[in-house]
Specification:
Blueprint lengths: L1 H24 L8 H14 L3 H13 L5 H13 L3 H12 L5 H14 L3 H14 L5 H14 L8 E12 L18 E15 L5 E14 L7 E14 L2 E14 L2 E18 L2 E14 L9 E14 L2 E14 L7 E14 L2 E14 L7 E15 L4 E14 L6 E13 L1
Antiparallel strand pairs: 1-2, 1-14, 2-3, 3-4, 4-5, 5-6, 6-7, 7-8, 8-9, 9-10, 10-11, 11-12, 12-13, 13-14
Helix pairs in contact: 1-8, 2-3, 3-4, 4-5, 5-6, 6-7, 6-8, 7-8
Length: about 425
């Protein structure tokens, strides 16, 4: 059945892209003017499959005064191929302003809406395409009719998305608080079982440019021998997002609770603000601020109660199946014990790639410096290097197997906080 569905989708979209190629071929005779040259360069890049470069040239032609429906149409196709559906919709709406291209633009607006799982909007545009197509435009009418037949009666997609994983791993230096590193490592190795469940519920807004979502996570880390390091967590969060011009804004809050060795350890309310903007084709800049208050419930560690501020700036770019990012994070702490209120600078980089349809590779490296202002002794300086490699093999029906390798090297003025850590985990997971 899944194969049939794929064939039906191919039947719908193949004529769509054939029409694109026909339109592109018609532009070969464009005049030799700067705006026409830029447009031609975009066509060449498109034919070579370089949609990022094609977009750059098309936007250059637009800025030089090139205003033709084929320009906006090609911009829409490039954005669609790159998965930038909001921009594709805007370009096809511009195309629809030209009567001779309106029926085809309506069809593509339906395709974009269906790609975003907005079936109601997809049906609206496809019906409009069919009704406005010329009587002798059999190809477009067949395209619209086939798409309508495929969508009508299709069950609405679930508003829920969930992920569950089970991992078995080995850690040669178990950490009590891997995220904070306020305490010494255990200097003990052990096998562990890592269980994680995550779910997210989407709520649509009044338009496709806004919405909200609720998410929850549950995790449990169980060691074979050092049971006093067993850790459980629960976190809940609610976020609202809105497209404001060229910015996507997001804000929300949440609650986090954790246990150690079966006993309550801490709880933490959280506030998060985020802004994201597209700088160039496939290049995004993101800023995020998060404020946590940690209420440590374990009396042995209550001196760690207090505030944490994290401000992050991230630059990311996508090249086909490859995505890379660079990030900087400033962390400021105001804990009950000032000796445990470090100022931290984290520089990180990552690459996510999918060299094959069923293979995923994720690489992360990070360098963090920490300064502790110690009241009664010399200040403490620490440097930490992290690296993580994750290899994933995608199975069928959302199942996947992955292997994660982690390395950490923490160097401190105080020998008590000097340590290295290596861990490897094999996960069996499913997205549903």
């Amino acid at each position: 059945m899944q194969l049939i569905n794929h064939l039906l989708r191919w039947k719908i979209f193949l004529p769509f892209f054939l029409i694109v190629l026909i339109l592109l071929s018609q532009e070969v005779c464009a005049e030799n003017q700067p705006e026409s040259s830029a447009f031609q360069a975009g066509i060449t890049a498109f034919k070579q499959g370089d949609y990022n470069s094609a977009l750059v040239f098309f936007h250059e032609a637009e800025s030089l005064g090139f205003e033709k429906p084929s320009l906006y149409y090609n911009i829409g196709v490039c954005c669609y191929k790159l998965g930038r559906y909001q921009e594709a919709e805007e370009a096809f709406r511009k195309t629809a302003a030209f009567p001779q291209m309106a029926p085809l633009a309506f069809y593509n607006l339906g395709v974009v809406a269906e790609k975003q799982s907005d079936h109601e909007k997809a049906l609206y545009w496809l019906h409009k395409s069919y009704d406005n197509a010329e009587a002798d435009d059999v190809n477009l009418r067949v395209l619209a009719a086939n798409a309508l037949a495929q969508i009508e009666g299709k069950p609405a997609p679930s508003d829920w998305a969930s992920y569950v994983s089970f991992g078995l791993g080995y850690d040669d230096n178990v950490e009590l608080l891997p995220d904070s590193d306020f305490l010494q490592a255990s200097n003990m190795d052990d096998w562990f079982l890592d269980m994680y469940l995550f779910t997210r519920r989407f709520f649509t807004g009044n338009s496709s440019s806004s919405g909200s979502y609720f998410q929850a996570g549950l995790s449990y880390l169980k060691y074979a021998e050092v049971g006093e390091y067993d850790t459980g967590t629960v976190d809940l969060a609610l976020f609202y997002w809105k497209q404001a011009g060229s910015y996507q804004l997001e804000g929300g809050g949440g609650y986090y609770y954790s246990t150690i060795d079966g006993q309550s350890y801490e709880q933490s309310p959280m506030i998060s603000l985020q802004a994201k903007r597209t700088l160039w084709p496939s290049t995004n800049l993101r800023f995020r601020y998060r404020l946590n208050y940690f209420d440590v419930l374990d009396s042995d560690y209550d001196y760690l109660s207090g505030w944490r501020h994290r401000t992050m700036a991230e630059l990311s770019r996508r090249w086909g199946n490859y995505n890379g990012y660079l990030a900087y994070t400033l962390e400021l702490n105001d804990r009950d014990d000032e000796d445990y209120s470090p100022t931290r600078h984290l520089f990180s980089a990552g690459v996510d790639m999918k060299p094959l349809d069923n293979i995923g590779v994720n690489l992360y490296v990070g360098y963090r410096s920490s300064h502790y202002d110690i009241a009664s002794f010399d200040d403490r300086e620490e440097e930490r290097f992290n690296a993580t490699l994750n290899l994933t093999y995608f199975l069928v029906n959302g199942w996947e197997i992955s292997c994660k390798v982690e390395y950490a090297d923490n160097e401190s003025d105080d020998d008590l906080y000097d340590y290295t850590r290596n861990a490897v985990t094999l996960y069996f997971a499913r997205l549903f």
